Amino acid sequence: MARHPLIRNRTLRGVTAVTAALAVGLPLLSVTGAATANGAAADQPVAADETVVDASARFRPRTVNPLIAGRTGYLHLTEEVDRQQWTDYATGRTRFPARGLSTAHPVHPGLSHRVDKGAEDEPDTVVITDVDTGQETAVPVPEGQHFLGAVVADGVLTAERAEDGSVTALNLVRLVDGETVTRPLTGLPAGWRLMRAAAQDAKGAVVRFRPAVDSATDAYFHLDYGTGEVQRLFPELGGTLPSNVVLSAGHIVGYSPQWENAVLVPRTAPGTAVRLVPLPAPVDGTDRRSAQAAPVGNWLLVVHNEQYPDKALGQPLWAVPLDGGTPRRLLTHAARRLAQAPDGSVVAIGGTRADNWAVRRVSAGADAPGLRTIHGVEPVRGPVDGLALAAGRLTVATFKPGTGGRALYDYNLAPDGRPVSGPVPSWPLRFDYNACQSGEACVELHAMGNGRTAFTSGSAVRVPSAPDTHADIRAGGGQQRLVDTAGRYTLANGTDPARQYVGDVEQPGDSHVVHTRSVTAGALWGNKLWKPVSGAGNVNSYDLKTKKTSATINVGSGCTPRELQAVGRWLYWNCGPTGKAGVWDRKAGRGISVPSGEALLGDGFLVRHDRTAGKLLLTDFHKGAGSAARTTQIADLPANRLKSQRRVGWTVDRFGGNVAYVDTAQRVRIKQVTVPRSPVTVLESRTPGKNLQYGAKRRWESTLQLSRPATAWRLTLRDGFGRTVRTVNGSKSQGASITPTWDGRDANGKPAVSGPHNWTISVRGAGDTTYRDVKKGSLWLTGGTGAHRDTNRDGTGELYTINKAGTLTAHAFRGGVHLKTYAKGWHTGYTYVPFGDLTGNGCNDLLVRNTKGTLYRYNGPCNGVPKPTASRVSLGTGWNAYDMLTYPGDLTGDGRPDLIARKKSTGDVYRFNGTSTGKLATGVKIASNWKYAQIIGAGDLNGDGHGDLLARTKGGTLYRYDGLGNGKLKSRATVFTNWGGSYNTIVVAGDMSGDGIPDLVARDTKGRVFLNRGKPNGSFTGRTQVADGFGGYVSLA
Fold first, then answer.
1. Which residue ranges does the record annotate as region Disordered (predicted)?
2. Residue 72 — left, alpha, or beta (φ > 0 → left; ψ -120 to 50 → alpha)?
3. How many whole angstroms separate alpha carbon 602 and alpha carbon 625?
């Protein structure tokens, strides 16, 4: 057997204050396939290349009306099913009765009946059906008797009447061994005319009679089949009779829907005085009493009709004790229809919300009614009132579960259209949207490709960014019509005044409008606005960032285009809804003819809705102009009452490439499009800053709007030598927008070296197997690990000077600016060696040798030159034996700075390794008899990660000794010859030019300072003067 339409096998929680923990695994409720004929929309087959996404549940639960409750199941009608169904209590299995069963009032628990009219001289026959077994019993109505509408399993209630219509006899006619046996029911006073049966069960019936005298009032009489007695009910009520009477094994209860109290008499003594039973009032804004009641043992079930069914699920189901006491709430919300079974139990329907709705069975219990779930009721799919799809982000406008309003819901899709997350509410629509068509509850949605969706709201284009945050692009006073969106930009036509507006959601301010022009056709792609210009078929683009206009092209339309759409190299145009249409291939510079009609452009294809045929058609032209375009059908989509279903009932992902449409069951189908995609590119980008302060709250970031979604991205940071500092891998995106970030750390998680870094962003597009570089740039890190001779961690090396007044100054030359930091009070006869970070705090230290030959370490303050009063640590005595002290960087490869010293007496060169304690190890001789005029520690000159040395001969030859990383040096390489004869000081002061490579600085005898920029291969460029007047300094370091 097939599934019950829209009722799933799932677990529901019944809500009741009486029973605990009603959560149960529900059985599968099934029907035959015919159940959906002309009722619930039959599900269309799902093709192999499409994925189905169910819409949200409608606020109001699916209507299930219990008609007759039997011993083993119940007969009911279900919304979207056009026939009666029978569902078994135990299994939840559903079937159709062989024929429709009568449910005329009053319903007998477990029984149905119909009247087959006899021929002219034949009596009528009442056919009684046992709803559990389907067994039929035909009871002929004796001649001269009239059927009263009440039955038992094998008999009928009849009356005999006088000529004036008054009842002269009441009979219970039963079928015994194929013969009718009549039993009189006595006690009805004379003068009563038959009106109708009001209630019935196997023990008896309640019939309402009308007096023969018109001025008198009606009366109810109880007919007891067991005793044969007829007794009047509720005589003390006079003419104020209840409109409804219900029966239980021990009670007769009368009530009217609007009454505050029900009336109760015992069934064994129906003629006694009534007792009042207070009925609970409606709640939650419903102030109109409209009760339905059914007895269960010594309890009366009561539920009111909901006054506002579009705003509330239903009134509570109450259990009222007939012996007095406080009512119990069995269900938070319930449907108004109740059906009593032969055993005295009652079928009720309710829950807490539409997706928790279930059919329940209420039975008498020792202390309170028991509640058992029979099966769940699947909610009705809410209508899809708007549809957007871009870069794998599906947005649906539909009902918000648990409320009567609408909302936007987002799903993230895999490249093949499968939902990987969602639905996530992105905006509560309420009524703040402009309908796509007058009188309709539809909203035209535009996907922007960056995870956002735009729609019009009054005089604004609204772009939600979170469920409680949005940007409104306002222009003019009249309603706007949204034309197009792309990334951060929106294009809309205003009505008061009639102008076309481009909005930028990233633009500060209230209106966000960045461009205004006359109303024409228009299309956005990246930061380009495509538009018609003077002359038939002429179009050009306007760059919203550079404010420049492109050259004009003629698309061959022969008209001024009425509509434009742009995707990558493709530009779609048409001359009106039924006019000529085409696609301009900007790469080939030629046009492609396509069919006219309501269409949306994708990357290399066009989707068109043929409303007459009810089809979605795809035209593939990805091979470009000159190759034949091919049109195929991709889906059935019947036209509906809307003039246009575009972006409401179907749409195209122009970033990701798939197609979405809404089928007749209000399910969204994602259709894969296999047309090859263009390579992923950057449409628009923004990098808020080129500087990053290490440790700051805000990281460096760059946001790229891509032409296609990326399944993964990679940010690679490199230093001036091209060495990789850090690779940041990620996959997080917003649609086709990615925002790689960097916190300033290197691959080991430590602060990267301050200074310039070149970055490259690479992406792996959806469906691709390799990464593609899409954006490059540079940034400057400050506050990281100090670069070579960088005392304040700003990434720029410094030249130290000491003047005659004892002021020690660090000079930086970058970008034509001379920057200085200094500290006063230093000794002019000391030797100063700008050094690396010996203490491991990320800041470079300063070594100072005093006149007595003691070498001290002054901890770098991280923000300039240390003061002479700062804390210091002795690194030993006897250092006057060395005539040259210089800092080459790390020679040993241990990550610590090393010191090079030349012994004055021998010319031997020693290496003193930095240690983990912040001191220097014992010297190790690495060269002998160096007679160079000057030895210069240079840092890493060639990008191999090891410190290097420069040495200049008295004859003017400059050599470079590359460090090997093991404490030793390579053989020397000539850098310059006949060089530096006028220089009295040569220093490699770190990177002073801003390219991340150490530079050579020299002072000549005239006090001029020259800079030779370092090259990645270890050599230097020609010199450039950067300063003058340095001749007065005592020394430079």
1. 99-118, 729-756
2. alpha
3. 16
- For residue 550, give the DSSP letter: P
**At a CB cut-off of 8 Å and minimum separation 6, what does 300 contact?**
253, 262, 277, 293, 294, 319, 320, 322
Q: Rounded CA gap, 476 and 493, in Å?
A: 10
Is residue 40 very low, low, confident or very high in pLDDT (cuts 50, 70, 90)?
very low
**Contact (Cβ atoms closer than 8 angstroms) between residue 798 and residue 787:** no
CATH for the stretch 384-475+523-670: 2.120.10
Tell me the β-bridge partners of 470: 464
The amino acid that residue 807 corresponds to is T
**CA–CA separation, 319 and 301 (whole Å):** 5
Q: What does 711-779 look like in DSSP terms, one character per residue?
A: EEEEEEEE-TT--EEEEEEE---BTTEE--EE-SB-TTSSBPBSEEEEEEEEEEETT-SS-EEEEEEEE
C-alpha span between 793 and 50 (Å, rounded) = 56
pLDDT on residue 421: 84
DSSP-based three-state secondary structure for 483:
strand
| Per-residue pLDDT at 416 | 76
Q: Which pLDDT score, from 0 to 100, does residue 284 have?
A: 80
The topology under which CATH files domain 102-232 is Lipocalin (2.40.128)
Find how far residue 830's CA is from the centre of its chain: 67
Domain 682-782 falls under CATH 2.60.40.4070: yes
CA–CA separation, 75 and 401 (whole Å): 29
pLDDT at 37: 22
Nearest to 514 by CA among 551, 487, 495: 487
Q: Is 36 helix (H, G, I), strand (E, B) or coil?
A: helix
- Are 384-475+523-670 and 799-1036 in the same CATH fold? yes
Higher pLDDT, 458 or 201: 201
**Residues 371 and 24 sit within 8 Å (Cβ to Cβ):** no
Domain boundary assignment for the chain: 102-232, 238-379, 384-475+523-670, 682-782, 799-1036
Task: Kindly state the average pLDDT of the residues 191-213.
Answer: 93
Distance CA 682, CA 738 (A): 10
What confidence tens digit (pLDDT) does each residue in 732-775 have? Answer: 999 999 999 999 999 999 999 999 999 999 999 988 999 999 99
Give the pTM.
0.76
What CATH code is assigned to 799-1036?
Answer: 2.120.10
Distance CA(703)–CA(449), nearest Å, equals 13
Say whether pLDDT at 93 is over 70: yes
